[in-house]
């Protein structure tokens, strides 16, 4: 079901054709509030362009506190940075132009998938379907050893008996395949024809089996193919992966691209990686500031300092002061790490007592310690902003 708010009936009719059956239409925000009281399970509201933007955003801000699983798509004839900033602060997930019905449908689908993921995570015992945890590994600067940490973290989790899949979202230059010594015969490109109808059987057909019991969903082998992957399918993909695995480790590029933001939106744990150099720390500090602005939960983050024993004139205290955040795990440098990478081996699996492996296993323990809250305990009333709204917008208000 979807609720649209707009007095123009023609708009509701066109959206009904685009979004499918089950759409309800009301003419005002006041009527919408009454409707939502009658439909407590509603997950999507589309606010039309005829509704005053101030009134709309005030209502959204209230809904995001009282109904944190409800997603809102705002339609505006003109879109600019000021509008996007105000909408994000209120809790709107997407702002799109109503004349582009394809964009409206895509935004609605993304919002619904995210709402379903959040609703699923809040179900009580005995009612929730199997739901694996999503762990996103991110570095704001290239060369930090992100893929090495991602794949070895996945191996450490698998070594303890978890069913683990590595999802490579570095769509242009993904290195998961080469790091795990895999041939990318099937990749994320093969998921695209299944969009909207993705299920476990279809997804298993494109997953590549790797070492130590790991599975991987690989990035395309050619950078030019990245543009063929629609980020709108990612919430659906993540939902199916959660049913199939205990943990999904997401490897990312050093950029806040739309696929990366989609992963952040759905993540249970975010591993933020930095190295002992000023550019890396500066970029991570900026990323942390963006997350704070958008109310991405700080309690879900783990800050990891890679090559922490490098003698470069910085200390852990320097790093923590620069970031304004605690370092949770320090990973030492070692020539054995690139050597294992060149052999297509995962050091955690081959040499579990190596200092590098011990540090990564400590990270795996920290990830496991970030349990979801008890479903019987009310969740904090701080809504998470849709991080994807940072990108992919254009036009004038």
Automatic annotation (TrEMBL):
Residues 367-397 are annotated as: Disordered. It comes from the Bacteria. Residues 135-346 form the CobQ/CobB/MinD/ParA nucleotide binding domain. InterPro entries: CobQ/CobB/MinD/ParA_Nub-bd_dom (IPR002586), P-loop_NTPase (IPR027417), ParA/MinD_ATPase (IPR050625). It holds the Pfam family CbiA. PANTHER family: SEPTUM SITE-DETERMINING PROTEIN MIND HOMOLOG, CHLOROPLASTIC-RELATED (PTHR43384), SLR0110 PROTEIN (PTHR43384:SF13). This is CpaE family protein. It comes from Spongisporangium articulatum.
């Amino acid at each position: 079901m979807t609720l649209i708010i707009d007095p123009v009936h023609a708009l509701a009719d066109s959206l009904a054709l685009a979004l499918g059956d089950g759409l309800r239409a009301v003419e005002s925000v006041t009527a919408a509030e009454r409707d939502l009281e009658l439909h407590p399970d509603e997950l999507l509201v589309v606010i039309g362009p005829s509704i005053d933007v101030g009134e709309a955003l005030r209502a959204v801000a209230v809904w995001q506190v009282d109904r944190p699983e409800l997603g809102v798509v705002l339609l505006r004839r003109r879109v600019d940075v000021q509008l996007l900033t105000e909408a994000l602060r209120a809790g709107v997930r997407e702002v799109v132009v109503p004349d582009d019905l394809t964009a409206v449908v895509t935004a609605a689908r993304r919002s619904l998938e995210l709402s379903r993921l959040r609703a699923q995570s809040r179900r009580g015992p005995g009612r929730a379907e199997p739901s694996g945890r999503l762990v996103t590994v991110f570095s704001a600067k290239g060369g930090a050893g992100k893929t090495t940490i991602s794949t070895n973290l996945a191996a450490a989790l698998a070594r303890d008996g978890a069913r683990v899949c590595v999802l490579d979202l570095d769509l242009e230059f993904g290195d998961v395949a080469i790091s795990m010594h895999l041939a990318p015969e099937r990749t994320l490109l093969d998921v695209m024809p299944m969009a909207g109808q993705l299920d476990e059987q279809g997804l298993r057909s494109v997953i590549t089996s790797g070492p130590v019991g790991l599975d991987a969903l690989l990035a395309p082998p050619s950078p030019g193919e990245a543009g063929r992957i629609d980020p709108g399918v990612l919430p659906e993909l993540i939902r199916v992966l959660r049913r199939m695995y205990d943990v999904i480790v997401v490897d990312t590029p050093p950029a806040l691209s739309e696929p990366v933001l989609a992963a952040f939106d759905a993540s249970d744990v975010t591993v933020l990686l930095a190295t002992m150099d000023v550019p890396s720390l500066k970029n991570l500090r900026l990323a942390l500031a963006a997350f704070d602005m958008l109310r991405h939960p700080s309690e879900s983050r783990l800050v990891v300092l890679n090559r922490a024993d490098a003698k470069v004139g910085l200390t852990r205290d320097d790093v923590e002061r620069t970031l304004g955040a605690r370092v949770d795990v320090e990973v030492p440098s070692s020539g054995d790490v690139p050597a294992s990478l060149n052999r297509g081996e995962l050091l955690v699996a081959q040499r579990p007592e190596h200092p590098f492996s011990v540090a990564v296993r400590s990270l795996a323990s920290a990830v496991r310690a970030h349990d979801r809250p008890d479903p019987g305990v009310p969740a904090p009333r701080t809504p998470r902003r849709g991080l994807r709204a940072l990108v992919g917008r254009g036009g004038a208000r």
